[in-house]
Fold:
Amino acid sequence: MTDHLSASLRDPAISRLILSRLPRSSLCALCLTCKDIREQTLPYLYHNLTLYQPTAAHKASTSIQRNPELGPYVHYFKLIPSRVTPYASEDTRRLWETVSLALASMINLELLYVDDITNSALHQHQQESFARIVGEARGVKSLRQLVYYFQWDAELDPFLEQQSSLCLLHAINVAPSYTPDLAFDAPDSNPWPELVYAEVMPPLVRRICGAPLRTLVIYIRQEREPEDLFMILADVLPRLQGSATLRSLALRDLHGHAVAEVLLTVTMTLPKLRYFGVMVLDLSNRSDVHAALMNFQALEVLEVDCSCFNPYPGHPAQCALAFEFRTYCPSLCVFVVWIGSVRCVWRHDERLSTWCLDTDVHRKNGWDLTGRVQELAVT
Structure:
């Protein structure tokens, strides 16, 4: 029986059809049958490592560290935290050292997702140490997606530079001491010809402004004063002005009292955007918002946050806002209203010249840029 199975699995089409559909427990059992089946099963067992528990992450990383020949089998490596008891300090240090060393042999890695699965807030020096070891993983050059929740440090810049196939970057936590290398401010400096989606802090925008970005999400720290915010945008937005591909811009954690000025800055710099959000709506400066909206030439989607309203606007009030904003921005066809974690999506019906509430209950809630915005990003 084992010989027959081994012979069948030697056919790539059959092995792919069978092994790609088996759960991990079955793949582990197959690896224990015989040497031939083990060799054919290992690439599927290690292809996608999605780990939620520190113990599982430590075992998998230790196995790869001790057997470097397993590293090339890993294409997706994700460390996603779950609700567990925080790790002891010594165990945490040992875990991240093992993970870092295992990364060195993952030369075919396409997706790297790193978060603190130990649920124990790492000290600054621990994050810097991990960033340094990851930055030295010179063998990893084929990443398509990089999601990094620890503090971004200058030690990671060389690692990022060598990812010429990168399509998605998510790094929303930057070390206070981080300063991007000014040598990469030149518009013709573009190590990432395929990078189309990024969620980053302002300092990292300077590094990736030469990429053909279609969707850019910039996280603004809530503790920023308006004067600091305008200085940041004055530095960041002009770097995007020459972009021929940018269609979607989101500014997260934006102060309500600075929205009108920020919106005007955005419309003057990037008038061809097709999506903008999330705007914390402040109707005390309504005329300024109207004036800024008139500068948009092709805006199709606008997201606003009405959580600060008292009382919250009902559906009639939301529809009235949609009519009002479309008066000053005739290209607007999707109007999204956030109230806390509830999202109401209004779509303009050209035939009836009215706004209709999208009642698709399966649409995601949360501060995301999925659905319509993703469609805009790829057109």
Observations:
- Residues 89-103 form the longest helix (15 residues).
- The chain has 14 helices and 13 strands.
- The first strand starts at residue 48 and ends at 51.
- Residues 364-379 have pLDDT under 50 and may be disordered.
